Amino acid sequence: MKNKSATLFYLIGASGAGKDSVLHAMREMWPDKLMVAHRYITRAAEAGGENHVALSEKEFLQRQESGLFAMSWQANGYRYGVGAEIDLWLSQGRDVIVNGSRAYLDTAIERYGDNLVPVVIDVEPAVLKQRLYARGRESEREIIKRLDRAELYRRLCPANGIVVDNSGSLENTMMQFSKALSASLSTESSS
């Protein structure tokens, strides 16, 4: 039974900003407050990065055609989906966080309206550059493109978004998010 308006926290940020670390910490810190959705991706599970459900192109398209995704998009040569189970969780009054896409944000807002709160994981440009080079997954040209894209999106943060700086320690980032989450949930409860 739904006893409050549930919130869909839509996590976005540049590649290298630390979204995967933040999501992992959220799973550990708030298992009773926040459902963390897995993404379905046409990328091998062994490829590193986030804890996702790996699907072949064919499997992904079959699920998409069957309406099993609440959201889906293409980026970086892969297909990404968020399962329709998030709609069930939201309808039951459970707050949910998804690892979204900056390019898909407007479509997600159209679908979920005021129930969607963007959460931007931001990182100082010098820190982001250092992280991208350290992980060694992209060429220098690809890293420069990622840095340019990160700067463009940094200026496009929605007014109702929560911005969390992940330039320092993960502990500090989670303290920032915890304060913002508490403020957001208490604001909704009083509405």
Bulk shape: globular
Distance between the termini: 19 Å
Name the structural class. alpha/beta
The helix tally amounts to: 7
Overall mean pLDDT stands at: 86
- Taken as a percent bin, the fraction of beta residues is 15-25%
In N-to-C order, the SSE pattern is EHEEEHEEHEHEHHEH
Low-confidence stretches: none
**CATH topology title:** Rossmann fold
Overall CATH class: Alpha Beta
- Main-sheet strand order equals 2-7-1-8-9
Radius of gyration: 16 Å
Number of domains: 1
CATH architecture annotation: 3-Layer(aba) Sandwich
Give the total of beta strands.
9
> Mind describing the biggest β-sheet?
5 strands, parallel
Characterise this structure.
The protein has helices at 19-29, 57-65, 85-91, 105-112, 125-135, 140-154, 170-190, and strands at 8-13, 34-36, 39-41, 53-54, 69-75, 78-83, 95-99, 116-122, 162-165. It has 7 helices and 9 strands, in the order βαβββαββαβαβααβα. The strands form 2 sheets. The protein has a 5-stranded parallel beta sheet, sandwiched between helices. The protein has a 4-stranded mixed beta sheet with strand order 4-3-6-5. It has a single domain, classed as 3-Layer(aba) Sandwich (Rossmann fold), CATH 3.40.50.300. Helix 5 packs antiparallel against helix 6 (140-154). The chain is globular. The model has no long low-confidence stretch (mean pLDDT 86). With 191 residues, it is an alpha/beta fold. Keywords: ATP-binding, Kinase, Nucleotide-binding, Transferase. Pathway: Metabolic intermediate biosynthesis; 5-phospho-alpha-D-ribose 1-diphosphate biosynthesis; 5-phospho-alpha-D-ribose 1-diphosphate from D-ribose 5-phosphate (route II): step 3/3. InterPro entries: GK/Ca_channel_bsu, Guanylate_kin-like_dom, P-loop_NTPase, PhnN. Its EC number is 2.7.4.23. This is Ribose 1,5-bisphosphate phosphokinase PhnN.
